[in-house]
Design a protein that fits this description.
Layout lengths: L3 E3 L3 E2 L5 H15 L3 E2 L5 E2 L3 H18 L5 E6 L5 H10 L3 E6 L3 H4 L6 H7 L4 E4 L2 H9 L5 E4 L23 E6 L17 E6 L16 E5 L6 H4 L4 E4 L10 H6 L6 H8 L4 E4 L5 H6 L3 E4 L5 H7 L2 H18 L3 H10 L1
Parallel strand pairs: 1-3, 1-5, 2-4, 5-6, 6-7, 7-8, 9-10, 9-12, 10-11, 12-13, 13-14
Length: 340
């Protein structure tokens, strides 16, 4: 049986939302018997010092890597992924790549042959979902591939976190994250039994078109380790882009392939999901009974009006089931088991 190892790295902050998924994956790997052969996980904000520590940690790990091991690499890994691949192959070790982002799919660099060639050196890959897996297969990726299905979000419930019962005459739809242009278009929606509660950065009250008659209620911005305790709503919205009618732009189109960490955050806040129907996670949401999909945000009024209190309560019960797995690391655990 091969020795299973991973390489911990430096993150800008222990409470940085951008690094939360990767930090959690390191913890889940450890909990599943994988051994860290690098330096301990660190949280140094200085980019130069942090990069230096990661570089030294990777070099130390590759020196310690024993022949015949299986090493789990999280991708992207700054400038070090290629270096780790080289070291692993030099030590005759297998590489399992846990994919967080694919630059080629984000459209920033167009289709990148270099990126595909690099990922093709991995023996096994854990990707987000069936849509991303199909794309990898179209690129003739040769490694064994499985899906994580949803990103885990390790968290211990705070018994003091506020969870207000649903008022079915004024359902609170939460959007958490960067305030994209579509947010300021929400007031163009026909009024119904709902409002929008906003959490995150980039909110500009000056962009609200009618501040005296708005459905938008900005609640503030909170650190990633505290935001779960502050969000109090009924549904979580997964939507990106400029318009109400589709998810456009790079981030919007990326929803067709990725598992947004935001969705896992909403589940931990005990909220069912409203998601774009072309998003890769839309099928997961409906199959698990944890929300519904819409082709346009203009559909929200009708969909919410059609739901009975009993149907919403059932969604919330289903959310509790999926939440239990997400907050305890079961999705990555099962993916690792499928590849063992």
């Amino acid at each position: 049986m091969s020795r299973k190892v991973y390489i911990a790295r430096n993150y800008r902050s222990k409470f940085d939302a951008a690094g939360k998924a990767k930090m959690d994956c390191e913890t889940i790997l450890e909990n599943n018997g994988w051994q860290n052969i690098g330096f301990k996980q660190t949280w140094i904000a200085n980019s130069v010092l942090g990069t230096l520590i990661s570089a030294l940690g990777v070099s130390w790990a590759l020196l310690r890597l024993k022949s015949g091991s299986t090493v789990c690499l999280q991708y992207p890994f700054n400038k070090f992924y290629g270096y780790c691949l080289w070291g692993a192959k030099l030590k005759n070790s297998k590489v399992l790549t846990l994919v967080h982002d694919v630059r080629s799919l984000k459209g920033k660099y167009g289709h990148s042959e270099k990126e595909i060639n690099m990922l093709n050196k991995s023996d096994q890959l854990i990707v987000h979902n069936d849509k991303m897996r199909a794309w990898f297969e179209e690129q003739n990726i040769q490694g064994e591939i499985t899906n994580i299905e949803a990103f885990d979000y390790l968290h211990t419930d705070n018994p003091n976190a506020q969870r207000t019962p649903t008022d079915y005459d004024k359902i609170r739809v939460v959007f958490a994250g960067n305030m994209g242009p579509f947010v300021y278009e929400l007031d163009a929606l026909e009024r119904g039994n709902f409002k929008f509660d906003l959490y995150g950065v980039g909110y500009d009250e000056k962009k609200v078109k009618n501040i005296n008659n708005t459905m938008l209620d900005y609640k503030g911005c909170f650190p990633s380790d505290k935001v779960i305790d502050h969000i109090d709503g009924d549904f979580g919205l997964v939507w990106y882009g400029n318009t109400l009618d589709t998810c456009d732009g790079v981030t919007g189109q990326y929803l067709k392939y990725n598992n947004p960490h935001k969705l896992s955050l909403y589940l931990l806040c005990e909220m069912p999901i409203i998601i774009w129907d072309k998003a890769a996670m839309a099928d997961f949401v409906e199959e698990q009974g944890i929300g519904f999909k819409v082709s346009s945000l203009r559909d929200i009024k009708t969909r919410l009006a059609e739901l009975t209190p009993e149907q919403i309560d059932q969604m919330k019960q289903n959310v509790q089931r999926v939440k239990a797995d997400v907050q305890s690391g079961q999705y990555l655990t099962r993916a690792l088991e499928r590849l063992s």
